[in-house]
Amino acid sequence: MEGYLTQKENSSATEHKRFAFLELMLIWEGCVSAKQIQSQFEISDRLAEIIIKKYKELYPDNIAYSGEKRAYIPTPQMVAQFSDGTLQDYVQIIADHAMVSELPLPKRRIDPAFVRPILLAIREQKRLKIDYASVSNPNFSQRIIQPHHLVFDGIRWHVRAYCEKNQGFRDFVLSRIDPAFGGELLDGADHYDIEDEDWNAFVDVEIQPDARLEENRKHLIALDYEMTEQNGEYRKTVHVRKAMLMYFLRRMGLDQYHQKPEVQQITLTAHCQAQLKL
């Protein structure tokens, strides 16, 4: 992929988007035609043909014409260059959303007005005054933080920051920052992400099918999580920032233990539990 960097830099953002669509159609639908590109981007048939031709010139090992389908198909050795090629990417770009349904989740209130100063504080390494509330302290109180990253845990957005009140790095849930106050930029920060030990430390989280399951069910769970078999046991290792470990365990259902293995499905390996001291 790095070998094509110069070619990509010479392509426009619009062309990137069109090439990404072309790739995702090749990967997930098995073919792509000029008509599909024309319909997706509301362009002329001729321009759609030019897009395919240019992509084929850039990446001849990715795409081939099929007379039988009267469309272009992916080659066996195709490697996506303009997208990750994931199913999520495909779902986001397809026009026919009637084929796909997603589980609706409660929307978290994220007001751009108070995210802007957080982003500015991160970018310019500034201190930031906010009003914040938590479950343990539900009344808004003033905090001065020194943010260095935004974090998404799969459900909620957080800002990772040094807290001057608690004199340490911690997470602040964005939806718990008082939008009425908005945030006030102060002078330069004196604590940086390089000092955040839990942010810079990574842990290997090793999961396995619940040992209580029968072998055929273990095999199914292994397929779900792309586990590999090691010495007759299924395993999957995920590299996680120590600061985000709690969110990972919670999201994967590993922060509790169900009585029914069919509900639990996966657990941490004994070695991993010992390493993480859980």
Task: Please sum up the structure shown.
The protein is of the alpha+beta class and 278 residues long. The protein is 35% helix and 24% strand.
Report the count of strand segments: 11
CATH H-level homologous superfamily name of the largest domain: Winged helix-like DNA-binding domain superfamily/Winged helix DNA-binding domain
Q: Could you tell me the mean pLDDT? A: 90
Termini Cα gap: 40 Å
Low-confidence stretches: 1-6
Pfam families: BrxR_CTD (PF26107), WHD_BrxR (PF26109), WYL (PF13280)
Domain WYL: 115-178
Domain DNA-binding transcriptional repressor CapW C-terminal dimerisation: 202-268
Domain DNA-binding transcriptional repressor CapW winged helix-turn-helix: 16-94
Layout: helices, strands, pairs:
Layout: H1 5-9, H2 13-29, H3 34-41, H4 45-58, E1 63-66, E2 71-74, H5 87-93, H6 112-124, E3 126-132, E4 141-152, E5 157-163, E6 168-173, E7 184-188, H7 197-200, E8 202-209, H8 215-224, E9 228-230, E10 233-241, H9 245-251, H10 261-264, E11 266-268, H11 270-276
Antiparallel strand pairs: 1-2, 3-4, 3-7, 4-5, 5-6, 8-10, 8-11, 9-10
Helix pairs in contact: 2-5, 3-4
